[in-house]
Amino acid sequence: LKKLRLFFALWPPRATAEALHAWAAALQRRAGGRATRAEAIHLTLAFLGDVPEEKVPRALAAARQVRAGACELAIEEARFWPHHRIVWVGPSETPAPLAALARDLRTELEREGFAIERRVFAAHVTLLRKARASRTLPVLPALAWPAREFVLVRSTFAAEGSRYQTMERFRLDLNQAAQAP
Ligand code: ATP
Ligand code: MG
Question: Ligand 1 atom 17: the closest Cα is on which residue?
Fold first, then answer.
């Protein structure tokens, strides 16, 4: 029985991914570890784990039910987590539309029979793994990350780290703010 390792995520524009990777590569030179490749940089919304192939349509159906608004993801903070030895970046506070997207997506996935972890959603982007302690992190460049769609991604193992393949894209609503009462 074929299973696919799947997750939903936001993917940055190419230039933003390149800038984030350059930042992580500079840090890696003194903190060690492994910097996420530019094309692999993402923000996970919901992790499905190994899904039997015949259940993939249910994941697509769940995502199509989501009516969340587009937003701008501000990359304002960089943190080192000593216990996981990772460096991640993200907004100081999760934007409300993004929190709503993660919540609605998880709700729809549960309706379709997926068991999604109920950990509080924290918007973070892992840029360096297996890093040594670093007292200070480099200043982040100004970055634009407009979140106008989310994607269903398949993860496969490869020598250079997990490889990701976009299976489907789902548009976020650009007019939602204007429509709100
Ligand atoms: P690697 O495992 O090769 O270091 P990775 O963790 O990015 O790379 P995956 O393990 O396939 O690749 O995970 C895909 C995404 O889902 C990542 O953003 C990862 O942080 C997240 N993820 C993985 N496992 C879980 C889990 N049990 N709960 C929540 N999120 C998870
Ligand atoms: Mg992993």
Answer: 44
Write the DSSP symbol of residue 126. Answer: E
94 C-beta closer than 6 A to ligand 1: no
Q: Establish whether residue 37 lines the binding site of ligand 1, counting it when its CB lies within 6 angstroms of any ligand atom.
A: no
Kindly report, residue by residue over 1-58, the tens digit of the pLDDT.
899 999 999 999 999 999 999 999 999 999 999 999 999 999 999 999 999 999 999 9
Here the tokens at position 45 are: 């919304």
For 118-124, the CB contacts below 8 A with 24+ separation are: 121/45, 121/94, 122/90, 122/94, 123/43, 123/73, 123/90, 123/91, 123/94, 123/95, 123/98, 124/43, 124/79, 124/88, 124/89, 124/90
Which pTM does this prediction carry? 0.95
Closest listed ligand to the CA of 157: 1
Residues 9/121, Cβ–Cβ less than 8 Å: no
